[in-house]
Design brief:
The protein is α/β, with parallel strands linked by helices and about 230 residues long. It contains ten helices and nine strands. The chain is globular and about 55 Å long. The chain binds adenosine-5-diphosphoribose (APR). Belongs to the sirtuin family. Class III subfamily.
Length: about 230
């Protein structure tokens, strides 16, 4: 049984029509990270932050998984592989493609979180600053998204699984945001083989044993086919 930990970023959902962050037409060209992706920005202008994530939730709902998401679900279904997908993405395209073992380290557009009591529930289609928490009644509801300066979810489990893996694969991420950008180094230090599949060379490409460049919808199904045929 081969144990594979797969990190995914915005690039795997790009061909489903979801915008990435750091491309020339990416989200961070139009929006300031400080305004829409930090706790300070939310405290300053919650209506602006809700508008940003409401629009992204609608875009994610309208999108469909692409062949890269589907191929990862196929690999997970293979009895010779134990697959964990660790995604930085806040869409649900991995789950809709059929992946079951998925960690959303940066949270989810489809969750609401009470900043006051930590209660979590399903996000309505459009969240508003006046929404109250169904548990404690405070007006402290926010999207269940991990912002800059906040701790990503399930880090202990991710590191444990990564260090016990046979192979670490990074797909569609620019390698600019830690801690995810450091996974390749953690893996290499534990003797885990590393592979990158990305449209272009990322900030950390040279740290991978193998780095292949191309669109995820082509590279990922190709790599999964190679794995399944070599068994
Ligand atoms: N196939 C494969 N890779 C692609 C494709 C594609 N079709 N399109 C784009 N890419 C690659 C880009 O070349 C880039 O290296 O995906 C990467 C996307 O990088 P970013 O936009 O920086 O997205 P990501 O790495 O997921 O960002 C990490 O930053 O702002 C935060 O919280 C946000 O989770 C996000 C984190």
């Amino acid at each position: 049984m081969a144990k594979v930990v797969i990190l995914t970023g915005a690039g795997i959902s790009a061909e489903s029509g979801i915008r990435t962050f750091r491309a020339s037409d990416g989200l961070w060209e139009e929006h300031r990270i400080m305004d829409v992706a930090t706790p300070e920005g939310f405290a300053r202008d919650p209506a602006l932050v809700h508008r940003f994530y409401n629009a992204r939730r609608a875009a994610a709902r309208a999108a469909q998984p692409n062949p890269a998401h589907v191929a990862l679900a196929e690999l997970e279904a293979d009895p010779g592989h134990e697959v964990l997908v660790v995604t930085q993405n806040v869409d649900d395209l991995h789950e809709r493609a059929g992946s079951q073992n998925v960690i959303h380290m940066h949270g989810s557009l489809f969750g609401a979180l009470c900043h006051a009591c930590d209660h979590r529930w399903s996000a309505p289609e459009a969240m508003q600053p006046q929404d109250t928490c169904p548990e404690c009644g405070r007006k402290a509801t926010r999207p269940d998204i991990v912002w800059f300066n906040e701790m990503p979810y399930q880090m202990d489990r991710i590191i444990r699984e990564l260090e016990a893996a046979d192979l670490f694969v990074s797909i569609g991420t620019s390698g600019n945001v830690y801690p995810a950008a450091g996974f390749v180094q953690d893996a290499a230090m534990c003797g885990v083989k590393t592979l990158e599949l990305n449209l272009d060379r990322s900030a950390g490409s040279e740290m991978f044993d193998i780095s292949r460049q191309g669109p995820a919808s082509v590279l990922v199904p190709q790599w999964v086919r190679e794995r399944l045929e070599s068994r």
